[in-house]
Structure formats: structure tokens, C-alpha cells
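Why does residue order matter? Because the sequence determines the fold. Keep that principle in mind as you read this record.
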Amino acid sequence: MLTALVFIAIVIIAFLLLANSRPSTFSMSRSATLNASPDKVFAQINDFKNWANWSPWDKMDPSMQRNYTGPASGKGAKYAWLGNKKVGEGSMEITNSVPSSKVQLDLHFLKPFKADNVTEFTLAPKGGATTINWEMRGNLNLMMKAMHMFMDMDKVVGKDFEAGLANLKAIVEK
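Structure:
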């Protein structure tokens, strides 16, 4: 019995040491080219009320509760949500808004797990189109490092970013 407990303790300690040796930060992104002007794309991402039209998470829970505070758009605009298990609970605040080129926001998840990340949209004109890059980055505590050993966040969240960019493309190209 004691040997089994010692073995289990060694496995747990080894796992935690391995998890702790993983990177302390993550970054993932997706890009797309949209056949629309940077101004038109910027208008969709700089106003949280427009996100319901293209955000993949809004489509996962159409009855999600939303709360908007602060300015209608741009720096200081805030958005909080409470949804089903797929979308959880959290809030976002636009911290930097450069017309037709960049929107940066602080993203805070409360459920299904706590996390604080930075999300950034960068826009660049490309002929008559716009190249958009959607990036999320943040720090990983020990629990999140352990989760990343079993779950590839780039693949999981990347699919949602791809869906969101496809939705956004459909809207701005109308």
C-alpha cells in the first residue's frame, strides 16, 4: 500500500514538474483577406454590439446575456457576457483603438475557468481588400500549463477564430 502511494506521489510530482517546465505564455492567431475596406472591417470589430453578427461564440448561445457599458465603441467600450457551458462567463474592454488599423482588448474569462488574455485585431489594406489578423495571447499558470499538455489551444480556439473570420468576411463583403 505504501509503495503504491509513493509511486502515485512520484507520478504526480513528475507531472507537475513537467507541466511547470512548459512555456509560461501562449499566443495564437488566424488571418484572412476580406474584400472590403479597412474602415468597413474596423466598424465591425470596434463596436461590441456588432459582434453578435459575426462572433462564433454568440452563435453557440443565441440566448446569452450581454451587458454593454462605457462608450458605444472604441477605447473604454466594455462588454460582459453570461452564457451556456460552451461560452461561459467573462468580459472584454477595448484598451486601444486606432481607426481602420487596430483594435486591442483585455479579455477576462470567469467561467469555465479564469484567464486574462489580450486580444488584438490588426488590419492592413491590400489593394481593394483588407488583411485582418486576430491574435490572442496571455500568461499560463501551472493549471493552464497542465491543460495545454492535453489540449492544443491553437487547434481548439483556432477553429473558432476561423469561423469568426469567415462570418466577418460574409458580413463586410455584402
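The CA atoms of residues 40 and 172 lie 6 Å apart.
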